[in-house]
């Protein structure tokens, strides 16, 4: 059975690029345009990994990580931040919130897949 990954980014083109890379590697993909949209799509189904941007309208990525960690069904779901942010303070905030990895844009899809394969839940 394919593993499911939730991509959260306000850029439709970025969701498309990440989605193509993940689908070609055999993953099922759910897309959300911001943190609030993502929370609305976490309805109890199994999600093996979340990839989220940091800077988004309505609910940013760090707030999303904190909210996901409060959900019983998803508190152990690994979250990868995929962002243009490279400041240590932002990375620290992400780690403290519960993010497992930080990938800086622009990224290479093969690099992202290496991170995904390491972190995706069994």
TrEMBL record:
Q: Which InterPro entries match?
A: Bact_response_regulator, CheY-like_superfamily, Sig_transdc_resp-reg_receiver
Coiled coil regions in record: none
In this chain the Response regulatory domain maps to 4-120
Highest taxon, organism lineage: Bacteria
Q: Which Pfam families does the record match to this protein?
A: Response_reg
Give the record's keywords alphabetically.
Phosphoprotein
Phosphoprotein as a keyword of this entry, yes or no, is: yes
> 4-aspartylphosphate is carried by which residues?
53
* Protein name per its UniProtKB record: Response regulator
């Amino acid at each position: 059975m394919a593993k499911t990954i939730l991509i959260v980014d306000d850029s439709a083109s970025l969701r498309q690029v990440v989605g193509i890379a993940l689908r070609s590697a055999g993953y099922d993909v759910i897309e959300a345009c911001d943190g609030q949209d993502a929370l609305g799509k976490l309805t109890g189904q199994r999600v093996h990994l979340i990839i989220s941007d940091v800077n988004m309208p309505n609910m940013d990525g760090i707030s999303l990580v904190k909210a996901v960690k409060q959900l019983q069904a998803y508190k152990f779901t690994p979250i990868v931040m995929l962002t243009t942010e490279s400041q240590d303070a932002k990375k620290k905030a992400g780690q403290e919130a519960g993010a497992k990895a930080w990938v800086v844009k622009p990224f290479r899809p093969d690099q992202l897949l290496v991170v995904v394969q390491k972190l995706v839940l069994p």
